[in-house]
Amino acid sequence: MRTRNSARAPSAADIPHFPSEEFLVRDEAIKAIFEPDSIAIVGASRDPEKVGYLILKNLVESGFKGKLYPVNPKVQEILDLRTYSSVEEISEPVDLVVVVVPAAIVPEVLRQCGRKKVKSAVVISGGFRESGKEGEELEKTLTQIVKETGIRLVGPNCIGVDNPHVGMSMWVGVKKKGPIGIVTQSGLVGTALECWAEKEGIGISKCISLGNKIDVDEVDLLRYLADDADTKVIAVYVEGVGDGRRFMEVASEVSRKKPILALKGGRTKLGIRAASSHTRSLSGRSEIYEAAFRKSGILSVNSLEELYDFSKALSFLPLPKERGALIVTSSGGAGILASDLADKLGLELPSISESAEKRLRQLLPSHCVFSNPFDVTTTTSEAFQLVMEENLNDDNISAFMPIFADPLPRAAEAVKKIVEKTDKPVVVCYVGGAEVEEAEKAKMHSMGIPVFSSPERAAAALHALARRHELLTESLHAG
Amino acid sequence: MRTRNSARAPSAADIPHFPSEEFLVRDEAIKAIFEPDSIAIVGASRDPEKVGYLILKNLVESGFKGKLYPVNPKVQEILDLRTYSSVEEISEPVDLVVVVVPAAIVPEVLRQCGRKKVKSAVVISGGFRESGKEGEELEKTLTQIVKETGIRLVGPNCIGVDNPHVGMSMWVGVKKKGPIGIVTQSGLVGTALECWAEKEGIGISKCISLGNKIDVDEVDLLRYLADDADTKVIAVYVEGVGDGRRFMEVASEVSRKKPILALKGGRTKLGIRAASSHTRSLSGRSEIYEAAFRKSGILSVNSLEELYDFSKALSFLPLPKERGALIVTSSGGAGILASDLADKLGLELPSISESAEKRLRQLLPSHCVFSNPFDVTTTTSEAFQLVMEENLNDDNISAFMPIFADPLPRAAEAVKKIVEKTDKPVVVCYVGGAEVEEAEKAKMHSMGIPVFSSPERAAAALHALARRHELLTESLHAG
Predict the structure, then answer these.
(1) Residues of B with Cβ-Cβ distance to A271 under 8 angstroms
(2) pTM as predicted
(3) Contact B337 A265 (CB under 8 A)
(4) Is the Cβ of B239 closer than 8 Å to some Cβ of chain A?
(5) What are the CA-CA distances from residue A73 to residues A110, A117, B294 (Å)?
(6) ipTM
């Protein structure tokens, strides 16, 4: 069987039309990584300080729906599960093997997996290319075994795969099902996004940490996530890409279907130096990546928080047709801070129409500021709603940005009513963290309305939506 | 009596040497705003939807240590407190009056305060300059009454004053005593910083919202906070400054003593337009403010979150002598993201010394990355501690940035041990939000060790420390 490395660069367009047998097998193996019916954990441990314990415990606690087979020849059971002395001792079929044994033993484990006809393996273990000469040799051996066995391998030197939709979370035990699909070369970036999404009640669809990515890479995953119904947006952290052309081809296809956001690690001299000692990626010049991202329809982001914020925005919100937005707030200061960033990012704040102003002057107290930002001053959620309602059909206004700056009850209901009436994005900011705010924020998140925690972060999120719209338009014109 | 507006511009240096009687009276009045023995709330209400209820309730619940006199001629008691029909009906002396009646009635209330010899007043009520012609006239009347009575007035159109050290919180009911002094022209900026500080267990020393600032202004408050032992750093949000020269004079003096951070609202065309309709401040050109801030030793920040983060950093951490930092992490990706921002900000990541590397190679597993960022890979808090310990006395390293990227127990203890041994700043980043992280983060905050939630935010905070050091050095050389 030919392997990835020798195969012609596939493009996403190939797949639906000419599903060769090879592609079907390979797709099934990728599917087994995210949706396995059974998982063996080789190196499962009873010691709570060990990763082999953590992963098994998380799989149990996140409620994995398939079968779990801890493999450890030295003990009889772990966490009430019967253990096996090796993968080959398991009589049932095994879809996915998670490997957490010392690096030196990994090759032997993978050979056993090959004999057992396991589809895929996730090698958590570190100690390969990233750790010097000896590790490099070991990694070459792994690559050879992958070629020989046809096993699809994630890692090594990674933190695993999560899919809350099947109750599978290996490293941090997240449970919330959500729309964000994460592909990351750094475990940290994955766990940060996962934990933030879990905490806010947003959730993720999938998270995969690629580590040294000797086999499964961004291209495989973009293709898989493009067709994954649970994934609405794909967030990628990348240090370096092996086959740039193939990546761009597939990303160009996928980004027409779903937004792809990318954070590039190693964009400066110091960053590139750090990246080269991390996964020994050739991280390459920042401008080249920027240009390639843009050409592939990928939205480039500048920080971990932007990756999260923009994923939230693009998962839930419709796109604005133009760059004009109406800011509604009860805080002059919040409106100013949002305006300052909006201006820097090239967003527009058009005046409200004369007719809307006239109507609102009849309905609201005279000390409101009937402008954009619209300052309702009177602090009721209904006033926010009223202002947005009266401007819903203004063609100059493509988006709304309500910035709640006081502990306002019923804010979620007010926003909901607007969201139901329009296909323009409503980018909510709720500043503060007192009781009412937290409750309203949680309510909005449960309604699928993302909330941003500062005026600047809301403005930046709206800008991401506008850029996505522009990328799509460019891509339509180009294609 | 002469009032602020007719007085010669005072500089902070005047005060300790020649305390004229006028200055003493005026200082006492500012003190009464933050540390009153008694507060009358004119417009106190029984209606939970009214601001006059909210403020009284918050003062009761935040545990105000002095006397509270609700003033409302229509009811007998509110929240178990006897009410008074007017300020003049109160037989005991009143230090501070909080005014929450409709704008039209405010002048009469202030005249009563004048007769009662009240020292200071906080006018929460809106409906003045910010709301049009009629309000403008009313505001002129207030200014006239201030001149006649000598009362020091905060506002109008503000959200009050908080001082957790005397159990006083008017708008959001914060309780945590901390080091951050907040002076803001926007209520929102104040409540955002307060709520974030409360939530993280950091706390504030004082918060004052200036609103239309017809009397008490930034200059009065910089002077007061400069001498306030509880305030370690002064965070200012400003849209426009009345007397720029006086502001710069006082800020130059105060910033030698304590760090001043400023967020300028209205730095772009859209922001300036929004500011002019907020407090009708002449917000002026961004570059002029930038230059003035720099000349006065003020650190300029770019967002609400930066204002908070840098306040945290400067409150608790010593300053780095140079720009070289050592990043220690268990996540290659986190190290890269921090390196990228460090590079952009002009921080340096010097190599560790040969001797330190030699020692660490003996103590740590070979798959660590013995570089900067130093990747401990093995995820124990003790490894972080060890790496910092071995480089404590390296002159090229002026700061440490441990970035914890896994749920690591004992992280707080490990950092504490380093903090105790060095006068170099330790800027901690703890990403994620799972249980262990939250617990360790809370522990560090309770130990006075600030924690930042992303690698980029930690790098930016370290940069703020370095800039503060440079500003102080410049100011020493200049003065």
Answers:
(1) 336-337, 339-340, 343
(2) 0.92
(3) yes
(4) yes
(5) 16, 20, 67
(6) 0.91
**CA A373 – CA A351 distance, rounded (Å):** 9
Query: Whole-angstrom distance between the N-terminal and C-terminal Cα of chain A?
Result: 35
Return residues 122-151 of B near A (CB < 8 Å). 126-127, 130-132, 135
Considering only CB atoms, which chain B residues are within 8 Å of A267?
340
Determine the Cα–Cα distance for residues B172 and B239; give it in Å rounded to an integer: 23
Beta bridge pairs of residue A301: A263
**Tell me: the pLDDT tens digits for B140-159?**
999 999 999 999 999 999 99
The CA distance from B344 to the nearest CA of chain A, in Å, is 7
Q: Which residues, 6+ apart, have CB-to-CB distance to B289 below 8 Å?
A: B264, B267, B300
The reported pLDDT for the residue numbered A116 is 97
Interface test with B, best of A340, A370, A371 (most B CBs within 10 A): A340
Query: Which residue has 């900067």 as its token pair?
Result: B372
Residue whose pair of structure tokens reads 């991390």 in the numeric block:
A278
Question: So what's the pLDDT on residue B9?
Answer: 42
Give, rounded to a whole angstrom, the gap between the first and last alpha carbons of chain B.
35
Q: B337 contacts in A (CB within 8 Å)?
A: 189, 263, 265, 271, 303-304
Is beta strand B177-184 parallel, antiparallel or unpaired with respect to B233-238?
A: parallel
**Which of these, A226, A184, A176, lies nearest to A207 by C-alpha position?**
A184
CB contact at 8 A, B326 and B397 = yes
Q: How far, in Å, CA of B249 to CA of B228, rounded?
A: 19
Query: A440 and A416 in contact (C-beta within 8 Å)?
Result: no
Work out the number of other CB atoms within 10 angstroms of the CB of residue A352.
22
CB contact under 8 A, A375 and B278: yes
- Summarize pLDDT for A292-342 with one digit per residue, the tens: 999 999 999 999 999 999 999 999 999 999 999 999 999 899 999 999 999
B180 or A241: which leads in pLDDT: B180
Which of A336, A367, A452, A463 to substitute to test the interface with B, most B CBs within 10 Å? A336
Task: HSE, CB side, 13 Å, CA atoms: give it for residue A132.
Answer: 7
Distance from CA of A284 to the nearest CA of B (A): 13
Which of B188, B200, B281, B307 is the best substitution to test chain A (most A C-beta atoms within 10 A)?
A: B188
Structure tokens at B50: 């009214």
B156 and A CB contact within 8 Å: no
* Nearest CB to A192; choose among B135, B239, B432: B432
CA A451-A453-A455 angle, to 5 degrees, is 100
Orientation of helix A455-478 relative to helix A304-316, angle to 10°: 70
Give the DSSP H/E element, type plus range, for residue B388: helix B381-390
Q: Which residue of A has its CA nearest to B308?
A: A454
Tokens at residue A28, please?
């099934």
